[in-house]
Fold each of these.
Amino acid sequence: MSRIFDASTTVHFAVQSLTAQDVTVVTNAIDAASVLADKDGITVHLLGGTLNGRHRFLYGTATLQKLSEYQVDKLFLGACGITADGISYPHEEDGAVKREMIRRADQVIVLADSTKFGKRLFHRISGLEPIDMVITDKEPDPAMTQVLSDYDVEVVVAKGGNVDD
């Protein structure tokens, strides 16, 4: 199994709960790499690049170049905003990395709490077309649920627990 984990707060919670074995992980998140390094059965590839010290992620040309060498089964991607127009973030440099992560994954899984629905931020990184699944804490409103259904995005309402896949 191979996975990409981005540098979002929600994805970090999934990283902490990961129980799967024999997993190869690619990440640009300093904190995720640190947590994963202490788990048995996980090989971590930390992307290089320029460090955003405040949010503790790597970005830039070196990050994108290294990321382009990988192809993974699943991407776990956080979102700051989810609307009918797609997924958005406040940081353009982080968005460029997330866009490349989407290109590198066979399955794109967005992890977002329900407060992210209906929010639109400065930098749009993707429409809803490449998104396969959204895992959230509450069902989105009916209009957003319909939009996600129109794009064949599966919505899963999580109740908590460990991540074994």
Amino acid sequence: MPYAIPRSLSVACLVLALAACQHSVRSERPLYDQVGGEAGVAAVVDGLLHRVHGDSRLNGLFETTDLEDLRRLVNEQLCEALGGPCVYSGRSMEDAHSGLAITDQEFDWFVEHLVAAMNHAGVQSKHQSAILAVLGPMRPQVVGQ
């Protein structure tokens, strides 16, 4: 006759397994923390804006932009998007890009600079993919406005 596991032991094992799963979900750090928190986000943003500013294909889009304000807003937006403690205080993406008629190609160049900035800042590729997945849905809010 096969050995029967007592019901109380089965229930105890199930409770322990569920507790372990719940603990692992709760201990998962926000993406913000995984990329280095405030310093990591700032490194990515500074690298991104430096690259964009040096790109003659894109820097004309920022001719009348207060670059320090842009830096602050992009930091806030990325921080908030990655689950950090910041709150984005800027305009909607549609309003911020209204009248610029940004093309898909320009958006792609911007993303290339973002990836280069993340690489330079040492952001792991799995985190880069997660960041791009968070920011990618903004494309229709930016392109063609």
